[in-house]
Design goal:
By secondary structure, the chain is of the alpha+beta class. It is about 50% helix and about 15% strand. β9 and β10 form a beta hairpin. The radius of gyration is 34 Å and the shape is elongated.
Length: about 800
């Protein structure tokens, strides 16, 4: 019996090649989209779960509200880990990471620039699951200046030599040596940190400081199995009172009570390890965090795509019922039970879904490299590496096959044999109503995706073209100039002799991309008890003209004025925060150093606000201090021959050091990279939107074809009576256009709500204009007309004699 069902199924598929092809193509695109998004979502939700103790690890974070300026820092103070371990018995272990940027290391005569170096506590490998393939995780980092490295780093430095016991050193003038005591395979891709060298924290003096006024250590706690971390979090305010409060009083002359009376607050928060990647909005985080909203967006796209593909299948199957009605009638007359017919039609659906799944796997294989490039992922589809993939695909085929085939199966098997054999079969109002409802649903999703794609494109275009308050074009960043040491100033002067160089500034504070971040708490002479959080930029006298920042009042720094070492320049937002308005020049601000000593600065100028952070954030108060020794050169160029200029700069650089090649970046590229993830996400959404609309068009094409088939005699009669081709096209199109209108009425407010929520994440955003919805409606109408026209015109120009000759 099953063999007979399969034979009939393939015979039916070959007899209806066009509609079988439409179904297979639509389903395969839908399934391929679902598989890619399933891989993406599984990877995103799996971050840090490689740790066997993942559900017991939390990160300590710092939150504050300083005079309305919110702080959310992923780092905390050096003593926090040891303090919480000592004061709370529920803390089984505490460990820390100190990110150390990109130091220069050398082994033998070879120098390496490392951008994945960190100091960690000796118990780090007992808290995190990173098994050592050489060395003992309990003792590897007990001694100062010991280091654990990855297998890739071991090969990079030592090739095939035994790494244990080898010594690598900092190239920092002190030549601090590190002895290799352990090797791990690698840090998994789905980890929120990606270090390759883990040095012992024991050798870092900063880690032992009892200072509660600096915050630069990532701190993790291991809690008991099943322990609710919120219980410990509720006890953390007493830590603020006991330890941070006295140091605040000593450093700022301000008690916690007075601090809070002025509307400010600080606190510790605990963040589960498995929440860090998708639910973190803390600054200075390790790596690029994900966003749970994109998981929801892509999940919804996958669901809608699959639903539309399934809707197409059901629409085509029920609309084509007239072709199978006589078959059903004959089978029933010959004794087939309804259950037999249901099994046959479900089997046909499963076979078609199986073929579509095979095609989908081929599409996934072809599309994954592009998706990985856009989404910055390393997703793979491998039956050997993912053993659950085969059973999941089998269940998926059965689920989709039964889902798409259930309604057509029960619908077709319910035909009355006498009626269909007499030629009295009609689709019925319920069937037509269901198909119309499904078409409306398809258009709702398509219009929402069209509106969303347009809004995302316009917002990202707005960001790229928004006036930033500084000049990002033809600005070169030389971030490794610090390795020249005393020769750096000589190199800077040599750059200025180049006719293609307009100016050069010495500062590591770059208003785009990764940069130095230095919170600066100050008070004013008018209100010394009111603490204001600002950002501090250490710059030289060339910084403002090099970046084209505009002075609103006062003057720039001058190398000839010795008093400028105690001067500052603030931005407009800072002047407003200090309540000075337009008269900020000659006012004073004060702060305290780590020893509690008061330092006073005089304001000599105010610059117009410029965007030194992402446009997701509003401009915050900024204070510039004259402190040029940062190891980074900002070069303003004035040439169209950029390639030639870079070549000349490389030669100049080589004259100073032959060990390190010139490393450079453009400020405009750093700015674009800040929003690269969002731009790529917009591209992915646009691609998925296009695919979804394409699959919906396939369904429309098939539906119109069947409609024209069912009404071919009516069309023949209308042509005999004088109907024009345009009139017949209008006849077949107007019902679908009504459905488009209904879909637009529903989709417009839904898409506005969704995109308005997305735009809330941007401090500077576009308004959702009415023309976006009109454009989406016109596109939907155009898509419908183009899709319908081919079959409608074909039916309209057909010879009416052929459709009427059987009468």
């Amino acid at each position: 019996m099953i063999r007979n069902y399969i034979k009939i199924a393939f015979r039916n598929l070959s007899r209806n090649k066009i509609f079988s092809g439409i179904n297979i193509l639509g389903l395969s695109i839908g399934i391929a989209t679902c598989l890619i998004i399933m891989l993406f979502i599984t990877n995103e939700l799996g971050y840090d779960r490689y740790n066997t103790k993942a559900n017991r690890i939390v990160r300590v974070c710092f939150e504050g509200n300083i005079q309305g300026e919110k702080m959310k820092e992923a780092t905390v103070m050096p003593p926090v880990a040891q303090t919480l371990k000592a004061d709370f018995p529920e803390v089984e272990a505490a460990t820390r990471i100190r990110n150390y940027g990109t130091p220069k290391l050398f082994y033998g005569n070879t120098t390496f620039k490392q951008d994945a170096f960190a100091y960690v506590d000796s118990n780090f490998f007992q808290v995190f699951t990173l098994p050592l393939i050489e060395g003992d995780p309990k003792t590897a980092l007990l001694e100062p200046n010991s280091i654990v490295i990855t297998k890739a780093i071991a090969y990079k430095y030592f090739r095939n030599e035994e790494p244990i016991g080898k010594v690598i050193a900092f190239k920092d003038g002190k030549n601090t040596a590190f002895k290799v005591t352990g090797v791990i395979d690698k840090v998994p891709v789905n980890s929120h940190f990606h270090f390759e060298l883990f040095a012992s924290m024991t050798g870092l003096p900063e880690s032992r400081e009892p200072n509660w006024m600096i915050s630069n250590f990532y701190t993790y706690l291991l809690l008991p199995e099943g322990y609710a971390y919120k219980k410990l979090e509720a006890k953390l305010p007493q830590v603020i009172e006991k330890y941070l409060g006295p140091q605040m009083l000593q450093a700022m002359g301000l008690t916690l009570a007075d601090f809070r009376k002025k509307g400010s607050e600080i606190s510790f928060r605990l963040q589960p390890l498995t929440d860090i990647h998708l639910h973190s909005d803390f600054s200075s985080d390790l790596g690029q965090p994900g966003d749970i909203r994109y998981v929801y967006i892509f999940g919804a796209i996958a669901l809608f795509m699959l639903m539309i593909a399934c809707i197409n299948f059901m629409n085509l199957s029920t609309a084509g019922a007239s072709k199978r009605s006589r078959e059903v009638g004959i089978r029933k007359v010959l004794g087939s039970m309804k259950s037999d017919l249901v099994r046959q039609f479900l089997l046909e659906s499963i076979i078609l879904t199986s073929i579509a799944t095979v095609v989908a796997l081929i599409l996934v294989h072809l599309a994954l490299p592009l998706f990985n490039d856009l989404a910055n992922q390393t997703l793979t589809l491998s039956f050997t590496e993912q053993p659950l993939l085969v059973p999941v695909l089998i269940l998926f085929v059965l689920f989709v096959g039964i889902l798409t085939g259930s309604y057509p199966a029960f619908y077709l098997s319910s035909f009355k044999p006498i009626a269909v054999l007499k030629g009295k079969f009609t689709s019925g109002k319920k069937s037509i109503g269901l198909r119309s409802g499904l078409v409306v649903f398809q258009f709702i999703i398509s219009i929402i995706l069209m509106v969303s794609t347009t809004v995302v494109y316009n917002q990202l275009s707005y960001i790229r073209h928004k006036k930033l308050g500084y000049d990002k074009e033809q600005v070169l960043i030389l971030s490794d100039a610090g390795i020249l040491n005393k020769q750096q100033e000589v190199f800077r002067h040599q750059l200025l002799t180049n006719p293609g160089v307009l100016s050069v500034s010495n500062s590591g504070y770059i208003p785009a991309g990764s940069t130095y971040n230095n919170n600066f708490f100050v008070s004013t002479e008018e209100d010394p008890g009111r603490l204001i959080k600002t950002l501090r930029y250490d710059v030289d006298e060339n910084y403002i003209p090099t970046l084209g920042i505009q002075l609103q009042s006062g003057r720039n720094f001058s190398a000839n004025q010795g008093t400028d070492s105690a001067a500052v320049i603030v931005n407009e937002t800072a002047a407003m925060a200090f309540k000075w308005g337009a008269k900020a020049v000659d006012h004073s601000i004060s702060t305290t150093d780590h020893e509690g000593k008061k330092i006073t600065y005089r304001v000599i100028g105010v610059v117009k606000d410029f965007h030194f952070r992402s446009l997701h954030e509003t401009i915050s108060p900024l204070v510039m201090v004259l402190s040029p020794d940062a190891g980074t050169l900002i070069v303003k160029l004035k040439t169209n021959d950029i390639a030639g200029m870079i070549s000349r700069l490389k030669k100049s650089w080589a004259a100073f050091t032959s060990e390190e090649p010139l490393s450079y970046s453009f400020l405009e590229d750093r700015f674009n990279n800040t929003y690269k993830a969002e731009q790529n996400t917009g591209t992915i959404v646009g691609i998925f939107a296009g695919l979804t609309i394409f699959v919906a068009c396939l369904g429309l094409f098939g539906l119109v074809t069947f409609t024209a088939e069912q009404r071919r005699k009516e069309i023949g009669i209308r042509k005999v009576l004088g109907a024009s081709v345009s009139g017949i096209v209008s006849l077949l199109s107007k019902e679908l256009l009504k459905l488009v209108f209904i879909a637009f009425i529903i989709a417009a407010p839904v898409s506005w709500f969704i995109m308005n929520k997305w735009l809330e994440d941007f401090a500077y955003r576009i308004n959702i204009s009415w023309w976006i919805f009109v454009l989406a409606a016109l596109l939907a109408i155009l898509i419908t007309i183009v899709t319908v026209s081919f079959q409608a015109i074909k039916a309209a120009i057909a010879n009416p004699v052929k459709s009427l000759r059987t009468e």
